[in-house]
Amino acid sequence: MSHPIQYRGLESEMDFEVSRSSGPGGQNVNKVNSRVTLRFNVTGSVLLDDQEKAVLFKKLSLTASGDLLISSQASRSQLKNKEACKERFYDILREAFKKKKVRRVTRPTKSSQRKRLDEKKKQGEKKRWRGEVDY
């Protein structure tokens, strides 16, 4: 899959750590390091400019040292988990750098105003008929 940010060489700044997965999986889980953790240091990145770093610090939860951590243990394959981490990394970056849609102020339509007032009148009528009961 092609990612617009991928071509800037961010993969050269990624560090991968492997460890044993948790949860069920029989003997395989006890001997194979299949969980992959991607570590990307935002602060130390030379490929991101200061403005991009500021956006990532604002929108993402990073470690105290400025690392973005992503883990995957969905597959028994270390390679598939590594690919899943990369995919999730690019999804996170794409979402963080997406421009927020500007909301344009609009006025309620005449029919919606009329409908709201009619509903309020009906509700008021209903409550007015509830008056106190004499025993």
Q: Can you tell me the residue ranges where pLDDT is under 50 for at least 5 consecutive residues?
A: none
Helix content, binned percent:
25-40%
- Report mean pLDDT, rounded to a whole number: 82
Give the radius of gyration: 27 Å
Pattern of helices and strands: EHEHEHH
Shape type = elongated
Give the helix tally. Answer: 4
Largest sheet: spatial strand order: 1-2-3
Structural class assignment: alpha+beta
| Beta strands, count | 3
How far from one another are the termini?
Answer: 77 Å
Question: Can you lay out the helices and strands and say which pair or pack?
Answer:
Elements: E1 14-19, H1 27-31, E2 35-41, H2 50-59, E3 67-72, H3 78-96, H4 110-128
Antiparallel strand pairs: 1-2, 2-3
Question: Can you walk me through this structure?
Answer:
- This protein has 135 residues and is of the alpha+beta class.
- The protein contains four helices and three strands, in the order βαβαβαα.
- The protein has helices at 27-31, 50-59, 78-96, 110-128, and strands spanning 14-19, 35-41, 67-72.
- The chain starts with 13 loop residues before the first strand and ends in a 7-residue tail after the last helix.
- The model has no long low-confidence stretch (mean pLDDT 82).
